[in-house]
Amino acid sequence: MELKALVVYATRYGSSKRAAEIVGKTLGEGTEIVNVEKFPSPESYDLVVFVAPIYGDGPLKPMMEYIERYKEKLEEVPKAFLLLALDTSGVVFRGELHGGILYSKPLVEAFEVPPFTASSLGASSTRTSSMTTTEKFSKGFTQ
């Protein structure tokens, strides 16, 4: 049985769209890749993957609007998300953690049954200068 997946992405400059395309290609032929601003219904999918950049302290606003609109239907389907940020390390300021894993907090807290996977990709967490050309290619880095 072929997995029917929806990869829904929010983007400002195109990086999240490219990441969504890579996720979609990895998931296979039964995958549909749609901009979140088109509000695709998550109904009838076996998996929904959210791909979004971080702006402020969480995913780009249209992604959260999409989740709010389809929250009830999204509770019924397995979910995963990929958040993209330049820096995923996080800092402690005045005794509180800012950034890092907290970027995913709005997505996790949006659901009664949270997404089963959470990832962030950041420039500071990926040191391409020490990678061989083969490693860069296998990880999707072109430069």
From TrEMBL:
Residues 120-134 have a biased composition (Low complexity). Residues 120-143 are annotated as: Disordered. Residues 5-143 form the Flavodoxin-like domain. InterPro entries: Flavodoxin/NO_synth, Flavodoxin_dom, Flavoprotein-like_sf. GO terms for molecular function: FMN binding. This is Flavodoxin-like domain-containing protein. It comes from Thermococcus indicus. The lineage of its organism: Archaea, Methanobacteriati, Methanobacteriota, Thermococci, Thermococcales.
